Amino acid sequence: MTNATTLNTERSVPGQIDIWYFVLIEVVIFSSYFITYMLYRIWNSDMFLQSQAHLSQNFGALNTVILLVSSWLIARAVQAAREHKYEAAEKLVFMTIACGVLFIASKMFEWSSKIGEGFELSTNQFFSFYYFLTGIHVLHVLIGFVFLSVVIYQIRTPHRRSIKVIESGAIYWHMVDFLWVIIFALLYVMR
Amino acid sequence: MWWAMVCFYQLFGVVFALMTRVMPPPKPWWDQARIVQWFIDNHSGLLWGFGIIFLVSGITASMNALIAYSMRRMSVSRAFAYSYLAIYSLSSLPGMLLTAILLTVGALRPDRDPAIIHMLYDASFTAFVGTMGVFLIGTSVWMLAVFLDKNRVFPLWFGYLNVCNLLTEIVVAPAWIFKEGPFAWNGVIAFWVDTLVFVVYTIAFIALLRQMIVREDFGNGPLPELEQRA
Amino acid sequence: MSTTTDKRLMIVCLVLTGVTLLSWWLGASHGHHAFSLNAGITCGVILMAALKVRVIAWEFMELNHAPVKMQRVADAALTSIITVLLVLYFVGLAA
Fold this sequence. Notes:
The complex is a heterotrimer of chains A (191), B (230) and C (95). Chain B contains ten helices and no strands. Chain B has 230 residues and is mainly α. In chain C, 18% of the residues are buried. The model of chain C has no long low-confidence stretch (mean pLDDT 81). The A-C interface holds A 1, 4, 8, 10-14, 20, 24, 27-28, 31, 34-35, 38-39, 41-42, 45, 71-72, 74-75, 167, 170-171, 174-175, 177-178, 181-182, 184-186, 189-191 and C 1, 4, 37-39, 41-42, 45-46, 48-49, 52-53, 56-57, 59-63, 65-68, 70, 73, 77, 81, 84-85, 88-89, 91-92, 95.
């Protein structure tokens, strides 16, 4: 029992607790999107499967890898900031942003090639969901840039540095990452 | 000057009792989502509902004032409060009153040419949804203020809740394109999720505003300047 | 100590039973819907996504050092959404 309590005092909430409330609400909202997607998929499974075949699995996988790497970079940035290696941390955050830009660029390319092939938002329900889910996710990436900018600002101004805020920004970015992991599974690969 | 503050809070109290009762479910908007023919079906519901809305519209103004006031209490520039106030008083005209007026006009005479009814319906809906962008800006102003505030008038998570509300409001955008399915304006995603989040958001900010008032009442400095010092 | 162990054992038992029931349901019960390759792929894909999310949350988001309560909430959220998605998928298959 004493062992358990000492363990508990060592534990602390990563980042600010507020960002976790945010993550929780976002997870609930996205869950509702996913469940809606699954329901419509059930009602129209053949059409969903056929449409899904037109998506490029390679792009999806590439996007996932980009985001996973970016998550790794920002996690390293937080670690560096904790060790007061602020220059390294800043560089890592910039690399994270570069990954995010790369992600959005590849998404844009994917969208434009899909539209070029004649698959648009209103083509059918699957593509509605495809553009909607990827679109709302890209929106989250864009907001992520704001979070990362705050992180950079925090790292740069010594009297403002708060490791909690830096961690919160990173937590947001990781959330964007894991949401994509589920979107990737549901849109691209599941049968 | 303390009595002015007391009057202020009395007024707030009244506004609150009315608002908490009225704010979460302005039903007529929701019912409108079903069918174009709904004018005939909902004839009396519409008239009564919008009668209430007309009453509420005034209260919304004082609520906006309260929200703007909450921003004045923060450590942020007054520009936030003023721009919020300006945006909301601007958008509540076309977004709420115009919608209500147009729909009431439609409901008053059910024997009118269906084409005109249809036009009224479209016009009111467009007026309502078209102002979404303005509300978006309003919400982001509030969000930014909450994030930048050092007086912690609102907890940080409320700022994040603003973000959630923003994001789900943006989701309504596809409603322009779809007539049916989950993204249409009565669809699961564009409407229900959005509404649910908005209701949570509304409950949260009403509770927080009330909390703010209580905090002020019991604090030793009712004036914003004194609170900043504490 | 004993209560936490008890709980843990119960969860383990529930998970094992659940997986067993799932495989039984996939394999035998529905004669006309025998285990298909697609179902297997989907099941694997969703479970792998769950694993990825869990690793991201634990390692990157550092939930591994977070208070136990938070971990519980996170696990509960992840388990419930994945369960709902899987159940929906298999209900859809059966329908």
